[in-house]
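Input/output pair, single chain:
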Amino acid sequence: MENNERTTYALFVDLENCGGKVETLKDVIEKVKIRGDILLGIVYGYNDHYSGLKELLLSNTFTVVPSLRWGYNQKNNLDIQLVIDALEVAYVNERIDCFCIVSGDSDYTPLVGKLKSMGKFVLGISRSEVASKVFINACNEFVFLESVAVDAARSRGNVKKSEESSGNDDQSSLNELLQRILSEKSDADGLMYASELKKTINRIKPDFNEKNYGHNSFGKLLAMIQKKYKSIEVDDSKNAVMVRLAAASAASSKAKVTKDNWQQIVKKKLDEFKEDGFDRVNPSIIKASLQGDYPGFDEKDLGFKRFSDMMKALEKDKLVRVEFDETHSMLLRII
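Output:
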């Protein structure tokens, strides 16, 4: 079960697509670091509006391509620069075998095709309102930016609850990070080597050291997390220590979405998206987020044939406005 996946990334970020928020970019970087090492990072379209990103960009050794205001083709110029840079890296840097492109522009589809023909793995990340289906289908893997933000926000919410009950924010934060890593990187059996888990933590938190948590070994730290939070299971019965997520037991105790509370629940979810900087969201993102918070959620239990009918009911209550993109895909503008 050794991890033989290709794990060296070049990360190219269209700041306009990403939204330029510190938390959003931080979530993207963590998402990629869970998968592997980021050997090269470049952001495009930087200007004074994104000055709040300076510390994050510097600490992750990103190169910045500024946005120079000249003529009508400014965006095209940046797009072309991204393509040139990506191809140069693909031809020159043999150590990089994975590329992450934070943009949903269909113009990048030929670039994706070329990278794949060279044996490179391509991960696409983009906000749903501008993600081209052509680009989505061209990538080896695609993740909606809203999903990245929602997962991180849910984790931050869990950390806050854990802090209130335990009084130890460092341990709570580590516990949630462990869960995020295991949910993405464990094998088909849900297992991950403790050694690989520690390497992944160090990629995300270079200053991580189990001694900072009062333990002289990583195994003892994992045992403490398992006992205190019951979120992971540690198996040291064989030659190597293995870790997995604990069986989900909280799902049955969670409140359910009902005919009486669904509007309040969805409104809260929409407010969270709006706060994270997403003005228009694909309905599938909202449904997936609801199912993440309320396992077993089904719009049919609320009397709706389709989830889109549920969203149209929200439009009547002036909580959203239903719109369609050029491919006739439904988007919800959050009011």
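The chain has a mean pLDDT of 88. The chain is about 45% helix and 20% strand.
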